[in-house]
Amino acid sequence: MCPTLTLIAVCIALTTSTTVRAQGLPMQDSATRAAMIGAATKMNQPADFVLGHREELALSAEQVSKLNALARAMRDSAGVRKAHMLSQMKARKPMPATMAAAGWTGPIDEKALRVEMCQNSERSVEISLAMAYDRRAVAALMTLAPPEVRLLRPDGGEVVVP
């Protein structure tokens, strides 16, 4: 799972714990938080997620074989994706307008804030697209599809599902 999504899952778990405690209810234990993080992780690895439910989905031996190959490929590419995202995050310029807007006083540079947020959105779109293509590759194996499915990426590349 990419670091940003891991961070989001942890933040959700911690926020939920804080909110529950503030309402006077018992705080979630570590097992519940671990289960939440694990569920988020599985959803971001669609081939592994589907393989975990192979009996419920009544997958054929051929589907299981193809999903295993796809899961290996997704795990292999996960490191490259994480490295790419981390390099983008490190190369990211400071966002002074965003930092200023987060404060309680001082002027708000709306134009600069919009520019910074648009740049940040572009990075989020890349992550969302990669996850969407992964899910489509798995879905192609779950349906009656031709023996080979080619999924086109916006950058012109292809993902071939045998």
Ordered list of secondary-structure elements with their pairings:
Blueprint: H1 3-22, H2 30-43, H3 46-51, H4 54-57, H5 61-91, H6 96-101, H7 110-142, E1 149-152, E2 158-161
Antiparallel strand pairs: 1-2
Please give a structural write-up.
By secondary structure, the protein is mostly helical. 70% of the residues lie in helices and 5% in strands. It has a two-stranded antiparallel ribbon with strand order 1-2. A hairpin with a 5-residue loop joins strand 1 and strand 2. Helix 5 runs antiparallel to helix 7. The longest helix has 33 residues. The protein starts with a helix and ends with a strand. The N terminus is likely disordered.
Summarize the structure.
With 162 residues, the chain is mainly alpha-helical.
Query: How many individual β-strands?
Result: 2
Give me the Rg, rounded: 20 Å
pLDDT average, as an integer? 74
Q: DSSP strand (E) fraction?
A: under 5%
Which structural category do the helix and sheet elements fall into? mainly alpha
Shape: extended
Cα end-to-end separation: 24 Å
Low-confidence stretches: 1-7, 14-22
Could you give a short account of the major beta sheet?
2 strands, antiparallel
Instruction: State the helix count.
Output: 7
Instruction: Identify the quaternary structure here.
Output: single chain
Helix content: over 70%
List the helices and strands in order. HHHHHHHEE
Strand order of the largest sheet: 1-2
